[in-house]
Design goal:
Elements lengths: L2 E5 L10 H9 L3 E4 L18 H14 L5 E6 L3 H8 L6 E7 L16 H12 L6 E2 L4 H4 L10 H10 L3 E2 L1 H4 L13 E6 L1 H8 L13 E5 L6 H4 L1 H12 L1
Parallel strand pairs: 1-2, 1-3, 3-4, 4-7, 7-8
Antiparallel strand pairs: 5-6
Helix pairs in contact: 1-10, 2-3
Length: about 240
């Protein structure tokens, strides 16, 4: 049985993994969801200084404090950035990395690099005009849906996402990853591609071509960008298959 540490994407907390965690535990796995600093129940712990390094430290600290071994580290969406940073620091504690509708970051990358310059400038303006000047509220789902698939989310799930999302510390978007993970040859590498990533991978986007080649193992999950909400049991099943 595997030990999963599940890291949520932007605006989310450990709560987003609840149904997937339940399904993994029913299969006999250890499943530990993590909330990053400044989000959900950790919202009061964040501040203008909260950045990508903070979230990398959250992940490595969680694994080390709990003395976890043979860890399968799971990153959804934004979490690819801090998980990539943490994976290189966990040494022999790490057995596997899993990117859910996301991909590892290269050294020097930041979240803002994944969007057009005008969209990045719009986010900067939105944050600077906000009350506290350091947090990015989750955009309306209609806006998010222009770049991230909402497939599979019914109205109830969309309402939960709207109600429970918390603003993202913007420093996690602006700070570049200092050092990319240097994983040992024995670390398993897994991609779970939902509709967003299956489209990119099947289109042959050059910068993602490596994900279709060994040592990467690819699993496709036919749902939108938030599978822990739209298809939590199916996501757990795919994770179970990936570690079997």
């Amino acid at each position: 049985m595997a030990t999963f540490v599940l890291v949520p994407g932007a605006w989310l907390g450990a709560w987003a993994w609840e149904d997937t965690v339940r399904a993994l535990r029913e299969r006999g796995h250890t499943a530990l969801p993590l909330t990053l600093t400044g989000l959900a129940e950790q919202a009061d712990q964040g501040g203008p200084q909260t950045d990508l390094d903070t979230h990398i430290a959250d992940i490595t600290g969680f694994v080390e404090r709990n003395d976890l071994r043979d860890v399968t580290l799971v990153a959804h969406s934004y979490a690819a950035a801090p998980v990539t940073g943490a994976a290189g620091r966990l040494g022999d504690r790490l057995e596997r990395v899993v990117y859910v509708d996301s991909a590892p970051f290269a050294a020097g990358m930041r979240m803002l690099d994944l969007m057009p310059p005008e969209a990045a400038d719009q986010l900067r303006h939105q944050v600077s005009a906000s009350d506290d000047g350091w947090r990015l509220p989750m955009p309306p789902l209609e806006v998010l849906g222009l770049s991230s698939s909402l497939d599979g989310l019914d109205e109830g799930q969309r309402d939960v996402l709207r109600a429970r999302a918390t603003p993202q510390p913007f420093g996690t978007y602006t700070q570049r990853l200092a050092v990319s993970a240097e994983l040992g040859p024995g670390v398993d590498r897994v991609l779970i591609a939902c509709h967003d990533f299956t489209g990119l991978l099947d289109a042959g986007v050059p910068m993602l071509a490596f994900l279709n080649q060994p040592p990467w193992r690819r699993f496709d999950l036919p749902t939108g960008h938030w599978p822990m909400l739209s298809a939590p049991t199916e996501l757990a099943g795919t994770l179970d298959t990936a570690v079997s």
